[in-house]
Specification:
The complex is a heterodimer of chains A (338) and B (107). With 338 residues, chain A is α/β, with parallel strands linked by helices. Helix content of chain A is 22%, strand content 29%. Chain A has 2 domains: 5-124 and 253-333, FAD/NAD(P)-binding domain (3-Layer(bba) Sandwich); 128-250, FAD/NAD(P)-binding domain (3-Layer(bba) Sandwich). Chain A is built from 7 helices and 21 strands. In chain A, the strands form 6 sheets. In chain A, strands 1, 2, 5, 6, 7, 8 and 20 form a 7-stranded mixed β-sheet that branches. In chain A, helix 4 links the parallel strand 10 (157-161) and strand 11 (180-184). The relative contact order of chain A is 0.17. By secondary structure, chain B is of the alpha+beta class. Chain B has a domain at 1-13 and 48-107: Beta-grasp domain (Ubiquitin-like (UB roll)). In chain B, strands 2-1-5-3-4 form a 5-stranded mixed β-sheet. The longest helix of chain B is centred in the N-terminal third of the chain and has 7 residues, at 29-35. Chain B is globular. Classes of the chains: A alpha/beta (338), B alpha+beta (107). The interface between A and B is medium-sized, with 27 and 21 residues.
Amino acid sequence: MSAVISTDICIIGAGPVGLFAVFEAGLLKLRCHVVDALPQPGGQLSEIYPKKPIYDIPGYPEILAGDLIDNLMKQIAPFHPTFTLGERVESFAKLDDGSFRLTTTDGTEVQCKAVAIAGGLGSFEPRKPAVENLERFEGGKGVHYMVRDPEHFRGKKIVIAGGGDSALDWTNFLANVASEVTLVHRGTTFRGAADSAEKVQKLHEAGKIKLVLSSNVTHLHGNGHLQEVTITGNNGQAETVPLDAFVPLFGLTPKLGPIGEWGLGLENDAVLVNTEDYSTSLPGVYAIGDINTYPGKLKLILCGFHEAALMCQGAFKYIYPDKKYTLKYTTVNGAPSL
Amino acid sequence: MENDIRIYVEDAPGQRRELEAPTDMGLSLMELLKANDYPIQATCGGMALCATCHVEILAGPPLIEPSDDEWAMLDTLPVLHETSRLSCQIRLQPNLDGLVIRVADPA
């Protein structure tokens, strides 16, 4: 990757709370770099419900989630934050001088004086079915929890499991790519997505794919690489099918992810903080918004904004232990800038 | 309270815990379960977007059919039961008195 990105605070998570932290940091003349696993800023507000109105943002009787994010981006623009989007922070090292070095999934490196985790629900990861030996065939040995590159399956025999949109969509798409596609669904119908379900049915009737309903993939077999799966019907009948790849598609579920392995104090998958400055158990690392927990915690955007303000005061003191700081009001100094 | 209803949660076979629930606060079954410390994530907060509040209905009064959105989420789960529901989509109303449920294993 390119040169190391250097900043004052690295904010992990570009949701509303992470974005507002850029503003509060900017008032203290602290620069921010924001990293998010999703390809756009806004966190779940942009990804899951951009068109949902929110009614409890102070000063806004009603605002669409997407508009709130647009406004926040406008509000922090004067502080020139930088972004790394579509990459997840994987590893984390505290250096001898008290600063930090973060590395993302794509190898981007961020050098910073303090870290603010604003990771919300965590990062979305594939849900795994309960099949014995599943893990044994992960990592290129035949089990794929998502389709990154359809070409990977060209000319191969694949079994897809699942009944949701992504299982149906990929079955339809890969029918023309793979040499053989079998879709295994535990139910008898697909109730979520009528259009793609109809397409799957037609492909099945035309003999282009195999559709196995009321069944589950129950066993995986192979020596090193996956070679066969056992598909067991709800009636107990089992058949063994040879294949090159097994693709279980059961949606995504938010997981704390690598943050859980950084040695921070945790409680129920949330990061424990001190409410004086939202510091974690590791000096210089802060956690704000839905990812943290403390007595009386409310998972509200407005509470996250408050946490961001206090966190920045704490980070300022961590970065400049000898500097005295007096609170300034934005009304006094005019339009904010770095 | 006069408008309270009772919901029964089967914690283990033959072992039911009674939860008293108000019906005048617009609560969902998910919120009642969370308030009683059941280990459900309910990460999306109740918008039928994450399927982490999956429950199984065991007995009791009939419920309103799931919406298309709820079905779509239920269909993504690796394990689904005949009477699976997302508890965030079940509003606690007087007619639900006596409902018996089980919290599904988190996927």
